[in-house]
Amino acid sequence: MDFFQTLMHYGSYAMAFYALYVVAGSLAFGYYIWRRVYKEPATKRLPVTRELRDSDSHAG
User: For residue range 5-35, what is the model confidence (pLDDT) as tens digits?
Assistant: First the structure.
């Protein structure tokens, strides 16, 4: 009977730590998704071309 009580004792600790692991993982994943969805969009600088290419300018 002592073996069964020891197994139940350590099993309860294992379940508690596993529950903490699941909760912490869920919070971390939720934070990651929240940051990806609601972060400010990065401004991308596009090069500005100075020459205009009109279709009329090529008419010969």
Answer: 999 999 999 999 999 999 999 999 999 999 9
- How far apart CA 13 and CA 19 sit, in angstroms, is 10
- Cα distance from N-terminal residue to C-terminal residue, the chain: 102
Total-model pTM: 0.55
Q: The tokens of 8 are what?
A: 């139940």
Residue indicated by tokens 């009109």: 54
- The residue with greater pLDDT, 49 or 29, is 29
- The 3-state secondary structure of 1-59 reads CHHHHHHHHHHHHHHHHHHHHHHHHHHHHHHHHHHHHHCCCCCCCCCCCCCCCCCHHHC
Give the number of residues written for the chain.
60
Amino acid at 2: D
